[in-house]
Automatic annotation (TrEMBL):
Keywords on record: Metal-binding, Zinc, Zinc-finger
PROSITE patterns tied to this protein: ZF_GRF (PS51999)
MF-aspect GO terms: zinc ion binding
Source organism per UniProt: Brassica oleracea
Superkingdom of the source species: Eukaryota
Name this protein carries in UniProt: GRF-type domain-containing protein
Ranges for domain GRF-type: 23-66
InterPro entries named among the record's database cross-references: Znf_GRF (IPR010666)
Amino acid sequence: MTSSSTSSARFPRISTHGVPTRCWCGEDITTFGSSTAENRYRRFYQYEIARDRKNENHLFKWIDEALIEVIRMVDVKHERVAQGITMFEERVMEKVKSELVRVEHEMFEKLKEKVDLEFARVLQEMKQKLKIATVAMVVVGEIVGIWTSLSA
């Protein structure tokens, strides 16, 4: 396979990567099949009128080479997208971990607050019951004392 992309002083060469859509002169291009022995039936892009104008150099590009360039460009873009996705995943995971720590801490504090409130309520209830039991014991003690003094 040979490669040939040419230009002239009249039509300055513009870099064409991948599949071209226009000749350097600005005209649309079309596809042709090579009839040379070296590249028989090999397809190429060229400005249609340029085939008849051998003294002017217009865009010429083999289709298979253009497609390989496109594949390489897609590979590069794919790699950049894959790297971007990886970086995005890493940032998301960092944020998720950070948010998880924050939520766990918040839940722990709320649970601790509820447990402390419940302990305080139960303690208050126990103190109240202890007061009632103490009063009941004093009353029973007085009744026993009075009954003992009356029976003696």
